[in-house]
Specification:
- With 210 residues, the protein is an alpha+beta fold.
- It contains 4 helices and 7 strands, in the order αααββαβββββ.
- Strands 1, 2, 3, 4, 5, 6 and 7 form a 7-stranded mixed beta sheet that branches.
- Strand 5 (152-165) and strand 6 form a beta hairpin.
Length: 210
């Protein structure tokens, strides 16, 4: 809140204060009308700085999560998930819930741990020769500066996932949606949802995590 001061020449001082307040209101209106992901947003003040810092932190988290998968650092990737975290690939376009519907993948931490252990097991013959994955992602988009009722922020990105094995490359366009929750000074994944563009068409065997 701006502190009001008394100066000589009350009318002149009042006009100055009215002008300042008018400028602040105009600045606020221009800020709230800008898109959340605008790269040209000229945010000012401690609240806006905090919002921008948080938004950047969420976007950086998504970049780093994808980098861990690209590098095959699945144990570190696994630790990004909350204890109640889910990895979900819906089996239908526009599917709202995994309950009572088919899913291509629906894994809690226990199932993710089993799959990660299999990826490094010497008797996983279907993974020989080794499988490699690579993602090209768009700039992550924060859906709202305010958390939902569960305290989660939603971040989305479009991506192209490529998986290579035995001189064959499968390419899958998709949208990844993250529900992220603050824990201390970091973020944890409550849900990672991957919507495949060709979900209702031919799908190859997906060996790794998208």
């Amino acid at each position: 809140m701006m502190e009001m001061t008394q100066e000589p020449g009350g009318q002149q001082n009042g006009q100055r204060q009215d002008a300042q307040q008018g400028q602040q209101q105009e600045q606020y209106r221009s800020q709230v009308q800008q898109p959340l992901n605008s790269q040209q947003s000229q945010e000012q003040g401690p609240f806006q700085d905090q919002t921008q810092s948080q938004r950047q932190s969420l976007q950086d988290f998504v970049w780093q999560e994808n980098a861990l998968l690209d590098q095959g650092r699945f144990d570190e990737w696994y630790e990004l998930f909350a204890q109640d975290g889910l990895y979900w690939i819906p089996g239908e376009s526009g599917q709202e819930s995994p309950e009572g519907r088919m899913s291509i993948a629906l894994e809690n931490r226990m199932l993710m741990r089993l799959r990660i252990d299999r990826l490094s097991h010497h008797r996983a013959f279907s993974l020989q020769p080794g499988v490699r994955g690579l993602r090209v992602i768009q700039h992550p988009r924060l859906q709202s500066d305010q958390p939902d009722e569960d305290g989660c922020y939603t971040v989305r990105t479009n991506l192209i996932y490529s998986e290579y094995q035995k001189q064959k490359t499968e390419v899958l366009p998709a949208t990844a949606s993250y529900r992220l929750r603050a824990v201390g000074q970091a973020w944890e994944i409550v849900e990672k949802r991957v919507d495949l563009l060709s979900v209702d068409g031919y799908l190859p065997t997906i060996q790794l995590f998208i």
